[in-house]
Amino acid sequence: MGSIITKIEMQKRNKRRVNIYMDNEFAFACDAELIYIHNITKGRSMDKEDLEGIACEDNYIKGKNAALHFLEKSFKSEKQVSDKLTIKEFDIKTIDRVLEFLKQYDFVNDERFIELFIKEKIRSIGKNRIKFTLIKKSLPKELINEAISKITSEQQLEVALKLGEKRLVTLSKNENDTKKLYKKISDYLARNGYNYEIIKKVLARIINNDREENIKESILDDEQTIKENYNKLYELADKRYNILIKSESSKIKLYKKLGDYLLRRGYQWDQIKKILKELINQIDEIDNATNEGR
Prior knowledge:
By secondary structure, the protein is an alpha+beta fold. The chain has 14 helices and four strands.
């Protein structure tokens, strides 16, 4: 037998929520909207199933409001919204239901999020850094790869030139040595996600022609540095690989675990992929099988 609703009162601090009393004792609080949705009235008898249903609906409304509030200031990814609701201790069923609502009305759209993110960041950082940042945000990797592939070398070069020229003006105030200027600008652009080909083109344009010989010399030095860094990366990867194979026989899982390990240490995916091809056999098959993972 159910209990009788004996009192319904508005909360003093939050007019959108009400307190429900059953058999003259406080039973639960819920969103005021649910009073009308579930026809909750004084004198009505309610059983446990009714209460559980109202609790689920109340969680959904609270979760939806929390998500919409989170989305007020800026566009967010599906994963960011999910993480936010998880932190607020909403259950997985409520989170899934809220996300369905948000996607239905286009409040969250990972494809559009990636496009907007790239549109904003392409003006200040390169493709490699953009891709790695999106991967860290746990966005769908097939969407990331598709969007990243649309970034042209011309787009990157245009921005990299502006960044390089601006950096040159700043550095030239205290540095006259061409080699040091070259190295500092090269490192700066690399940190911002530009690959070696883009960096070479930038440096060839912004360094004065009368320093051409020094530039060529610097290029050779830089290529040697790249080779040394590659060797260091290979040694690190090989050491980790030998540890992983003791407990992991699946080449696909080895590929992913080793790749993630090196990504966390700040190495670029293009460099990592070359190493993985050397360490793991039949890498082309693995790469195809894990295409969604990168």
